[in-house]
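Q: Here's a chain of 514 amino acids. Please give me its 3D structure as tokens.
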Amino acid sequence: MTRADWRPAALIALALAASVTGLANGFAYDDLPLIVQNARVHDLYRLGALLTQSYWPPRWGGSLYRPLTSMVFTLEWTAGHGSPALFHVVSVALYVAVTLIVYALARRVLSLGAAWIAAAAFAVHPVHVEAVANVVGQSELLAAGAVTAAAALYLARRIAAPEAALHARDVAGLAALYAAACLAKEHAIVLPALLLAAECTVVPDSRGWRARWPTLAPVAGTLAAVGGCYVVVRSVVLHGIRGESFAVPWAHVSWGGRWWTMLGVVPEWARLLVWPAHLAAMYSPAGTPLRDGPDAGALLGLVLAVAAVTLAVVARRRAPVAAFGIWWATLALLPVSNLIVRSGVLLAERTLFLPSVGAVLVLGALAQVLVARVRVREGTRRGILAGAAACVLGACVLAAGAWRSARRQPVWHDSRRLIEQSVRDEPLSYRAHFSLMGEMFDAGEWGSAEREARIALRLYSGDPWVYEMLAYHYFVAGQCGLAEPLLQNALSLDPAYADARYMLTTCRTRDAAP
């Protein structure tokens, strides 16, 4: 076996080490409404109809459009007879595949060793656990795999022959990958922007943009057509241009407050990409605070954002791969940043899966510089010691990442285990306590459920669902005196809340009865 042969096998081993502990998981959290309780993905006869349906079932809001992901769920459900085992095998296989695709992309712009380091870091990165351990994370895996494969294909052709236009088959391949990525998850729409970033950084074409445009026009036009068709079809299916049903806290935050809130999230993004020692499944107020204006966290986020963009611009010529990685991470975060459209989360680790490709490219660029400096001193005592120290440190980091990921995977075994761990991970997350309340009510643990409801309301009092769910259990127990003030609070936050209005009217009718 040659030196080059062991690298893909080692990457496969690392990705498996970080993910196989999730194979024993069942269905958890969003897996339940999207797969287990979703009859639309339970037989092959409805496969074609998924192209005309929303991702979320109508009873859960009917939002988002991810027909390719839903089709994959259908195939897995049918082949595995509804068992979660096959779903998790597919998730692990997809993760291994994406790791190898990241390696292929990194090899286009980095030396062989540096590319392997970047892909190895990707394989063991703990922030990826949520996308792999939770079955619905397959949308992230499919979209990121297709986007990264498209970028690798594009760079392979553009770097090999910068002044030549891409062949028609390559343009068709890019179009197919772009369509597949968008149909897996919406944030793949940023692919053209990622390729533009590559043109500005790592593509060695010295011609000006006017001279370069005839070379790029066929690709640009094709991708624009694919993206436009996707937006039109999505709008028709969802009856308008809209995103996910946005997170409840956004209903009470101004446009400016949204910017300050997300600037406060930027340091968390940076931490999770660089040092993901602490992980959580549910980030929400009060742990992830809403902001009406600047504070220390938001200002730190602003500094980090400005610094990242400035570094990407300044490093374009001297460190083009690092600049490309920064642009990749930045552009991939835009669709989930809540700055363009409001999303269903303030922060979620799964949304960092695609941006992390850019982060490991930056790491690979740094590794390439360090390796080059060590080789300058090759043969000297200092060079030998530096090389040995770098190898030991790198091995320790990869081992720590694989260990952290492997330990984290079983947290997603089932909803109860996940939610209880979420409360431990983020004790100030109202959403974690709210979710635990629901699990406890379902299990008949009324006293504990009431306690979790009160904690959730103390942490954040702006979610009508918390009031309504607690009131509902009082209502069915015939305790309208306890339910009515909760229902009034729910309706003050959302006057159109039909279920809350029905229960309040029923309670008042009971009270008025002789």
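Q: Can you summarize the key feature?
A: Residues 209-238 form the longest helix (30 residues).
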